[in-house]
Specification:
- The protein is α/β, with parallel strands linked by helices and about 375 residues long.
- It is about 55% helix and about 10% strand.
- The protein is built from 17 helices and nine strands.
- Strand 8 and strand 9 form a beta hairpin.
- Helix 15 crosses helix 16.
- It starts with a strand and ends with a helix.
């Protein structure tokens, strides 16, 4: 069954502003990114990289001139938090990254507040962090844990736990503060609308043409080594990201959650992006090792290292729920550590030994290099 794919053509100025301010506050220059990419990419891609990143660098310089770097709120919301890709503003706005909701600012604020109320009040939801998100999942043993205890169990510093507790408890006030900052940035960013529209249109046109000739299964096979026609067939929305130009993030794969998938693709990427062949950052290496250190994920990988198995089979063997298996497979897939294929109307999983070996080899080289 083919998957209906819709490429979003509109620019989300609030999301783009959050990413741009995050890069400015943490001194992640597009110029430095260009230098790094030119060292690692084939020469045939250099012209495109230079053209796009030179334009983003000029925008970044201009917005920085209009940003009060001494404003404590800007530092609070946009300084790196937990990982190289997370800040308080992204956590506050994160439910929008998993949503295709469009509406007025008040509608969006109401949606975000409801999301945080759910996190705070649903004591069956375990909280954790991955590379880009504060994540929620139902406790494997069905237990219920108070909100403060769930915050307390997070793997971060005590001061960060207090910051997160404050953010969730008073999400409405923080949204007002954040939007006051973002409204100013959006106004400044729209002065560069001609450039932004050009970059956005080029990326969206590429993906529109791609899906006229190929289906989403083929793309997932290229990105994550997933066999074609093996992915849950839900409508999928492709969002091209301008400021977050060098990342691909997939929200999906949990067959028990949501009515659609979302794929965020930076404007630097095309259909040849592959998880197992890209250069891994130190943060991504650390995140990969965290996956391997999780007892459940480790046992799942051991069980499927030499054989294919479907969700219920793995759940029975490891005494976990199928929902838990689906959640674990989602995170393992995003790191490219499993292969997925469909047979006899079942989705089968198997360890991607090449990817696991690559993760461990790169880690060894990083740790032992002179």
């Amino acid at each position: 069954m083919s998957i209906e794919c819709t490429v979003i053509k509109e620019i989300d100025y609030y999301t783009e502003s959050i990413e741009l301010l995050f890069r400015i506050v943490n001194k992640n220059s597009y110029q430095n990114l260009k230098i790094d990419l030119l060292k690692r990419k084939d020469e045939e891609k250099h012209a495109k990289i230079c053209y796009q990143l030179d334009k983003l660098f000029l925008i970044q310089e201009d917005i920085e001139k209009h940003t009060d770097m001494n404003n404590p709120d800007i530092k609070f919301y946009f300084t790196k938090f937990i990982s190289d890709h997370i800040c308080m503003a992204k956590i506050l706005y994160q439910c929008m990254r998993h949503s295709i909701l469009s509406g007025s600012k008040n509608d969006i604020k109401s949606y975000i507040e409801q999301s945080f109320d759910s996190i705070k009040n649903d004591n069956t939801l375990e909280l954790s962090f991955d590379d880009v998100d504060l994540k929620t999942s139902v406790y494997e043993n069905g237990q219920k844990v108070s909100f403060t205890d769930r915050i307390g169990s997070l793997e971060c510093e005590p001061a960060q736990k207090w910051q997160l507790l404050e953010l969730i408890e008073h999400s409405g006030r923080h949204l007002d503060n954040l939007y006051e900052i973002l409204d100013q940035t959006v106004a400044a960013l729209k002065k560069h609308e001609e450039t932004l529209v050009e970059l956005k249109e080029a990326a969206t046109e590429y993906w529109v043409e791609y899906f006229e000739q190929h289906n989403f299964h083929k793309l997932m096979n290229s990105f994550y080594n997933i066999s074609e026609d093996s992915y849950p067939s839900k409508p999928t929305f492709i969002r091209t990201q301008i400021m977050c130009c060098n990342r691909v993030i997939f929200y999906g794969n949990d067959e028990n959650m949501g009515d659609y998938h979302i794929l965020d693709v930076g404007i630097l990427f095309d259909c040849n992006y592959q998880v197992t062949k890209r250069q891994l950052t130190n943060q991504e290496l650390s995140n990969g090792l965290k996956l391997l250190s999780d007892p459940s994920k480790f046992e799942i990988l051991r069980f499927i290292r030499n054989q294919k198995a479907y969700g219920q089979e793995i759940a029975s063997e490891l005494k976990l729920t199928t929902a838990t298996i689906s959640h674990h497979m989602n995170t393992l897939m995003k790191m490219g550590l499993i292969n997925i294929e469909k047979s006899d109307n079942r989705v089968y999983y198997q360890m991607n030994k090449e990817a696991v070996n690559y993760l461990l080899e790169v880690t060894k080289n990083k740790l032992l290099e002179e």
